[in-house]
Amino acid sequence: MKKLMICLVAVMALLFCVSSCKPSLPSGVLSKGKMTDILYDYHLALAMAHMDDNGDKGQSLAYREAVLRKHDVTSAEFDSSMVYYMRHTELLEDVYKDLTDRYNNEITAMGGSAKEGGEFANLSATGDTANVWNLAASMVFVPVKPFNSTSFDIKVDSTFHKGDRLMLDFDAQFIYQDGMRNGVAMLAVQFGNDSIAQRTIMIQSTQHYSVELSDADSLGIKSVKGYFMLMNDDNGTGVSSQTTLKLMFLEHIKLIRMHPLKPMAAPAGSSSSASSDSLRKDSASSDGKPLKPLREMKPMKAEPLKTR
Fold this sequence. Notes:
Strand content: 15-25%
Order of helices and strands: HHHHHEEEEEEEEEH
Number of strands: 9
Radius of gyration: 34 Å
Number of domains: 2
CATH class of the largest domain: Mainly Beta
Number of helices: 6
Distance between the termini: 156 Å
Shape: elongated
Structural class: alpha+beta
C-alpha cells in the first residue's frame, strides 16, 4: 500500500511538471514582450512618417531602422523572429492580444479619440447625431485566421428613427514588408420590411475611410451588422506569404447615427400668411362688395411726330 501511494505521488508530480513546463523559444527568436514593444513602436513611427506630406518608402524604412536600434535588435533578428511567429499561430495570438490591449489602453489614456477623428470626435451615444459603436475603437489585424477579421452587430433600439442615416468612420494604417494590402469593411442594414442594403469598401492605403447607408424610404431600421477583414494577398493563386510582417491598424472607429432633419414650421403671423391675407382683402372692397372689373383700355394709335 505504501509503495502504491509513493507511485501515485510520483506520477502526479511528473504530470504537474509536464503540464507546467512550456517550450522555450529557439535561440535568436525575440520574446513575445520584445516583439510587442517593437511592433507597437513601429506603428507609432509609421504614423509619424505618414503625417509628413513628403513621406515616402525610404523615410518609412528609416523609421523602421530607428525603432530596431532603439530596442538593440538587428533587421535580421527581427525578420527571422517574424517568420517564426507567423508560423506558430499560438504565439502570434499572444503577441496580437498584447498589441491590441496596449494599443487600446494607450488610446484610452490619451482621452480616447477626442484628439482625432474629425468633426465626429466628441460625439456621445445619444442625441440627433450619435456614436453608437459598441466595440473597441482601435483594432489590429494580421492575414492569419482567426486574427484577420472582426464582425459587429449593433443593437437597434428606440433611439433609431425612420429615415436615419448611418456612417461607419475610421482611419487605417498598414505595416507591410511586402505584398498587396487587401483590407475590407462592410456595413449592412436590415430595414422594417426585411429588405437589406449593404455597402463594401476596400482598405488599401493609410488614410481616412467612411461608408454610409441610409433609410431613404423611412422604413425603419431592424438591424445593423458588418465586419472588418484583412485578406491574403494571394492574387487568386491560393498561396500567400506567411513569413513576412503584415499588419493593419484601424483606429478612431465610429458608427455615426444621424436623425433626419425636421421640417421647419412657418411661424404664426409670418410674411407669407400676411401676404395671403392681403391678397384676400384685395379681392373685396372696403364695404364688403366685390370690386368692379376695370374697363378694357383701347390701344393707342401711333401718330407721326410733327416737325417744326
